[in-house]
Specification:
mainly alpha
């Protein structure tokens, strides 16, 4: 009896093959999510660095239109999206409105933008968590099927050890596949979750810095108007 993976797969029962097929679908889905999130977070970091470097001079000069334009060219940056939203709301506010109301509108827009960006950054991670938590049980179902087939093999004395070994191989393969899929999915879920939490901290800090900057702008506008 051959013990390579392909031979063991051919000896599996149709139900056990179905379990393996489901596990491969789960693995393929998790790989697609991993690649998508890795590329998305990589772009977020690179665009954020570019936005911070390019917008410093415009912020010092008070050229908010230029800052918004720079943010649009670095639209994959979570910080750039947040800053552009806050500045757009600040500039579009009614000039006759009280300063406190203008600042509240800008603050609410930043909160809404942060929630939307956070949801976009976490897209697909719930799927990874689901795969990580269910893959072991799918593998366990295959394990049960393999053990049942092994017991059936013992009832037929003409099959000998081969009848038992086929069921045991089913159990081992499906268990190993289930655990492998789950470990990869859970590890990547934890890594990507910690990355999104770091992005959230960056957005919180950027929101505070932007609100402080806009407060100074309002005070300077009042001092010039006196």
């Amino acid at each position: 009896m051959q013990w390579d993976l392909l031979s063991m797969f051919h000896r599996m029962s149709p139900l056990a093959k179905g379990v393996v097929f489901i596990l491969f679908i789960m693995f393929g889905t998790s790989v697609l999510v991993m690649i998508d999130r890795f590329l998305r977070y990589r772009l977020a970091r690179s665009h954020t660095r570019a936005f911070v470097q390019q917008s410093q001079a415009a912020l010092r000069d008070g050229d908010l239109d230029q800052v918004i334009s720079i943010a649009e060219t670095n639209k994959k940056s979570h910080v750039a999206q947040l800053v552009a939203t806050g500045l757009t709301e600040f500039q579009s506010a009614d000039g006759s409105a009280p300063d406190k109301e203008v600042m509240e509108v800008a603050h609410r827009s930043l909160q809404r933008a942060a929630g939307i960006i956070h949801a976009e950054l976490k897209r697909g991670l719930n799927g990874l968590a689901t795969i990580g938590s269910t893959a072991p049980f799918v593998g366990l179902f295959g394990t049960v099927l393999g053990i049942m087939n092994a017991f059936r093999g013992t009832l037929d004395p003409t099959k000998g050890l081969g009848g038992v070994a086929g069921g045991i191989s089913e159990a081992l393969v499906t268990t190993a596949l289930g655990l492998s899929v789950a470990v990869a999915a859970v590890w990547c879920y934890n890594y990507f979750t910690s990355t999104t939490e770091a992005f959230d901290v960056e957005m919180d800090n950027s929101s505070l810095e932007l609100m402080n900057y806009l407060t100074v702008r309002v005070r300077q506008r009042h001092s010039r108007g006196r």
